Task: structure prediction
Amino acid sequence: MVQEEKKLQIDIAGIIGSKNPRLIKVIPRFLITLLKKLIHQDEINVVLEKYGNLRGKEFAKATLQHLNIKFKVHGVEKIDTTRRYIFVSNHPLGGLDGMILIDIFGEVFKNVRFVVNDLLMSIEPLRPVFIPVNKYGRQNVDNAKLIHDSYSSSEQILYFPAGLCSRLVKGAIVDLDWKKSFVNQAVKYGRDIVPIFFEGKNSGFFYRFANIRKSLGIKFNYETILLPHEMFRQKGATFNIYIGEPVPLEQLAVGGNPAYWTQKIREEVYNLKEQKWNR
Result:
């Protein structure tokens, strides 16, 4: 007898109940309904119903087509397909930008990998392209081996050095601090670094919510619960992605420390934003 393949679906009430059975009994039903709408549970489940059998870049492409997302890539001719790269980008959207980059470079290269918070491994269809990193502690043995094997391989690495998506800072939508680990990994594993500027933004409400949360001294990023809504509100949007000149490994290895190169490459990413009008 052939066992029926388990359907991928999310159930926010079930998730809360499994984590805290007592809590789910006291939460008012209208709050659960509101939370379902906030995270777009029904729309996410439609995507999983239609494309949950796909994996990796195929799932990313199908999801983008479902949302009628379009994008224009500028500077792809700068990429040498025989080289091994770490592609580093600003992170304006918080998920949709990652799928777009997977789609773009999945078309250029046979295999791509994306360094992500290990919590995102719960997104099963994208697991084949994810490299999970524990941002709050030591890596487990399996993850450490996957990181080493991926960076050592011919696979291309995609990376958001900020980790969190951009916020509104002094009137400008910019990344928070970049972590320098991508420079260390580039030198250690012999990879060039390619700066990318991704042109996009979330809603004004998202940034106001984040700044109010911060002003109240709340450290946990509660605004991340809004990211599914931010993704679905981008239906039909078109984005521009600008690829800069690769920074060769040889240059990284001889001039400046990781902190210097982290800041310099970040500046180059945002310079692409200013230069794009002349292209």
In short: DSSP finds twelve helices and nine strands in the chain. The CA atoms of residues 160 and 195 lie 11 Å apart. The first strand starts at residue 70 and ends at 74.
